[in-house]
Amino acid sequence: MDNSSGVGVLDKAVLVLNALEAGPASLAQLVQTTGLARPTAHRLAVALEHHRMVHRDTQGRFILGPRLAELAAAAGEDRLLAIAQPILTQLRDLTGESAQLYRRQGDVRVCVAAAERMSGLRDTVPVGSALPMTAGSAAQILLAWEEPDRLHRGLRGAKFTATTLASVRRRGWAQSVGEREQGVASVSAPIRGTGGRVIAAISVSGPIERLSRAPGRMHAPPILAAAEKISEMMRRG
Q1: Domain 8-64 annotated CATH 1.10.10.10
Q2: How does pLDDT run across 73-120, given as a tens digit for each residue?
């Protein structure tokens, strides 16, 4: 089968990237694996390094670069949003409350998708909003399964405790009542990607008057089901 695209320099660059998929390679190994002339392999590898598609390890060997991981993360996020949006809408309709999807970005969590309640008292969180990682059920979810050192750093100044996060891990969901905003309650569950890593949190939120002071008792089952549905679809690849 001919894998040529008709754009010779691009095809040769892809040969270099494909060769590095197996692991670090010296220039001699790249030449052997790709069949390219040594000057060509070197020129392409250095050009790809300039664009961060290729990097060098401590021994000077060529390895896949950080830009590929960044592009993969962006593609994964687009896929997550496409999968999650209709499920958020279903969750809103099932619970009668606004539903949101959050991803962690450094020291904040960002609302990357939402399905707002159509009428009545709402807890509106516009898409793109950056909220603190120190309060709220989604913050608890995004922190609870972190590595111990990151988890303990994240607890500094938080309105929840290590004991709270231990309970979150045990039952698989989190709730908050007036933690981020007075009068607002929420329930969240983790969305997991490849390897079971938590990549996002799905939530419903609304006034305490509707969700009560034990919102998990009311809404944890449908949120867990929605989270598992999204996680399963993400794992299918």
Answers
A1: yes
A2: 666 668 888 899 999 999 999 999 999 999 998 889 999 899 988 765
